[in-house]
Amino acid sequence: MQCKHCKFAPSDVTTLLNHYRLKHAQGHQGKNWTCPYSDCVCNFRTSGTLKSHIARNHVERKSITITSTFKCDYCSFLSTCSALDFFTHLRGHLRNGEEVTCPFVGCYHKINSVANFNIHKCRKHKNHTDTDIKSAAPLEAGSADTGCHDYDFHDGDEGPSMHPEADEPFAENFDIDALEHKLASLFLSMQTVLHVTKSATQKIILDLYDIEKLANELAVKKITDICTKHGIDKDSEILQEITGALFECNPIIQTTSERGRLSTQYRRDLYFQEHFSILKPTEYLYDRTCKESFIYVPINDTLNNMLCNVDFVDKIVFNQSSTSGQLNSFQDGHFYKANALLCEEDPKMSLGLYIDEFEVCNPLGTSKKEHKIVAMYWVLLNLLPKYRSSLTSIQLAVLGKSDDVHNFGYEKFLSPLTRDIQLLEQNGVFVPRLNQNVKGTVFCVCADNLGANSLAGFVECFSATNYCRFCVIDKKDVKSTRIRDFKLRTIEEHNSHVEMLQSSGSMHPVFGVKRECALSKALSYFHPVTGFPPDVLHDLFEGIVPEELAVCLQALIAKGLFTHDELNKYIKTFPYQGPDKVNKPKIIAKSCFKKGTIGGNAHENWTLLRLLPLIIGHRIPENEPCWEILMDLKVIVELAVCAAFSEETLSYMTSLINDHRHLVIETFPDFSIRPKHHFVDHYPHLIHCFGPLVSLWTMRFEAKHSYFKKVVHDTQNFKNVLLTLGTKHQEMQAYYSDRGELFWQSVYIENAEPFSTCNLDETLRSAVEKKYPNTDSVSVSSDVMLLRVYISPDNIRRVKLPGLPESVDRLKNILREMLGLEGGFSLQFEDPDFGNALCNLHSIDELPADKSVLKVVWDNIALSDSPTQSPARYMSDTSSVTSLDTASTSSHSDTLGSPTFYRKLKTAKDLPSPGSIQIPTFSLDVELRLKQGNEIYRQTKTPIAPSREMKSAICTAIVESIFATDCYPDKADMKCYAAALVTKHPCLTEDGPGTGYDGWLVSLWFKVGNYRNKLRKAGHAEVSVNKKKADSEEGMKFRLKKARRAEVNFLPPHAEGQSHESLDDLRLQMTKETEKKIFDANFIKDTMAVTFSLRRREVVEIQPLVQVLRDRWPALFHKDEICREFFRITQIDLMTSFRSSLEKFTPALLKYYRKKKEHAGSELTTLLAPLDDQDTDAEETYTKGVKISILSVLEDDGVAARRSLPNVLNIAIILEEAVVLKDIKDLPSAVGYLIGLLYACNMEYPKELRYTFEVIQKVFLELDAQDCSARALSLRRKIFEFLR
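== C2H2-type domain-containing protein ==
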């Protein structure tokens, strides 16, 4: 006997059941009690059925050797027999109405019925052996048969165990820690699954402790009374030991007492974190100058946790591609095969993201949009659809307020996510099953049309000219253009659109492109053209289906085929079965026809369309165009949700969609084609690209929203709703992972018998030997496979199979024999992963294990020439529909070349080739001239002579595109651009010897210099900071600052064992840490010390702008780190030295200024005048043009105006027009921090205040004090004179 989940070997069934309750009992979804015997495959819903199963089927395993002779006290029975025979004899006395005393030693219980005897023996003596029976006498050696006899099992009696540890106490198999963990799991489920608030949970725990405490004290009193009754002193050590053990073994008292590990919410949180592997979400700030934040759950850490779960790892399939040429999964799609990372032969992880906005409050209430949240979930696509559709398989990635995401942009919102995926692309995660690191990337992002267009960077208004993210067709041409004539977007074309948008600087979209996609900008293997599949849920079930149902039903009512009331009566009284009872459609209000849609959710609309032929089909005449529209739509929907496709099916689907659109336009000329109609036109092509679309729809993702809405509704906590939701979700995931419920088993096999494979049917035997070659016995259940076979509306059969056939063909043959079916047919099954929608059955593994609903689809009905005459429309009056696998009306199929990834312009170290340079599109007049010139050049090889204006326009456009990526191109770069120009426009080739573009190279080079001067005058940061030195130092491009201010460590070398790359990795980790709202201060402190050498090289050699330095080293601008950085540079304690000197010199300065009152007052007035003139109404106003400043925000009211010293509300430091530090408590501290920042950034003192800073440095801080200027030395002497 052994637990199949963790290999625990119990001594008896009771121990096993307790082990299940502690370790493997599932939560509110139900328990799974598995038979412990290795050759038995049964599992059960309850512990009672498991005990009964063992008693009925595994009695022979519990046998012992006879060692006793039994004698009956009520008759002359004396026999050498088993305890089974002796107990059977005693039951005979009980059946005769006699009263029997319990036969076990030390028990005097009187029994008068067989039932009471069985119950008493099971409860009081279940672990006793035959030697404990009063009338049992030991046998002499060799005096009796030593064969084995079976015990009798009745009503849960397990009998003795063969295990040597059977007599050991059960406490050795589990201890108080296991009970404590079970109790903690209950409290965690209360908070995360049952949504009990923390305060309510605490109240329950306190009351539970009080009840248990009183109950234990009552038990102690009862034990004391019993011991006193039997002569045991109540003060004896034995009694004290018993009562003490009673308290120690009570987990509720031990863990919820005043100092118990689960007594308070704080202690419970610590316990959960330690024992449940909770991966807490991290809170990030959008910007360090604001308080708006979002939460992120690290994707790589989540993957590592999941890969430690054996059950999860066993369900990962790295290769799901079909070998039959059909499209069965996303790995069969064109985009997957074209992905440079995923198409490699080594195992790769494919991630599917989902993004959506949802309201956690009443969308019609006063809090509308106040708590609207943007959520991004993700799922591992390497799981099969039936596993990844589980809500526990869908992981949380990012949560943010909708307004914040729109204000700050997707790039900041997704920055932690993209960093983690970059690491996944480069390094991968370790997979224990493969014993190697597996890389991965994002394959696609599932979203509704608005969310997909927004994240991908396309227009978010579907009335725009180019609203489609799949093609560039004009809105006005959608209705008249054939599907095969749509001009699809390509990667190269999209990249050129983005470049045109960026180079123009206009907010007007370019062919529907509004901005660059935040994901493709950060990831190497993702592109918006290949990464955003359509969504069947929103396009069909919440878009086209309710709209066309409303239009067609209204037309049918207008024709008098039925009334509105009759329609609702048919819908309401239809006998819905199975899942349709839950998803049955609502009645249709008259207002729905005015709105143009019947409304309803996706499940209801799907059910109504699917069952419509059976609901009102008998009222429809033949050749009714409105009915044909609906039946066409029904078939299109059935095709769209198929789990597998062949080329013939896609060809049929293309033809059907095209015919359906024309039929709608002909029947309803005023009906406007919606954008969703156009999206559906792309479905056949997109199935080629993404595989079956139903495996990438948003149905299951949207179900995840309900959890967060439930949390907010029950907790009513809006203080930090994002962190609350993220924390609750992660705790819930940890709870399910701990309980083993990520993939719980919903199939229960209660009747299975072992069979030798040689006794099986030949087909079954060959199937078993093929899949399990080393197996010589199997377990067969009489009801393991239950089928409901739909042959026709009036012929639905119930079929039982002894096992799962090895193939679909074998299943067809079995059905032919059992049901007498003749002719060719295919099978469809109801897939529970997709709302029990019918899907074509291509693999036997797709069938659910316990029971399935099958539909026979006959293929002996030929299609007519016109697909509009398909018998599928009249399925309410026929017994079969056309086979979707074999039907084909056209051999045409669109084929596209493999997409090539656009190679962007060079980085700082890469040299572009002319073929990779994208010459921009010029103005219309220039393009027309070039087009004419190119035609002439191809015919006559005669170049054109561009005018001065034309040449200037060409050079300006090219230089603008160059500066979009690099402000300092070198000559090699310029050669590439000049060569690319004459390659694209050969009419610009120059006559004479040389390359043909030498003149263009010179023109472009001078244009670059002129353009850089324009940017410098305009204040462009990147060129202003790199201004060349004076003529005397013209040989150097950059002016490197030297150690002029007594820096001890000006350019220190890297520490031993450290390199530029390793230090930069530490910088990236530190930058990521500082983005958190609550960061690890010790980690920041240590990392800043280690990376000091790298930081100084950047500051001194590169001389970055303060804003750039702040972005790369955000921790450098924290108050504590300013002081530490100053100490590392100068070995001086900044604030201590400055404050002590200030305290020391202030009295002397005051005396000096009093003596020089007149002159000093005038000078102070001059210094303060600029500050008084500053306007503090807007940050841009008081920071514009300011290089170095201390900004004081004063109280501005009538009372403050009359005070000589108004209240200071805030003090900030401004460097290079940016507030780099604020919330400083006083002015002296601000001056100290300013000095520290000037040293840390290696900035020169401002010319107007150079003597002031020199005094602070050389007098107050005594840095390079021996080398003072005349003014500073004079002031120093006078200060020391007043100190005497």
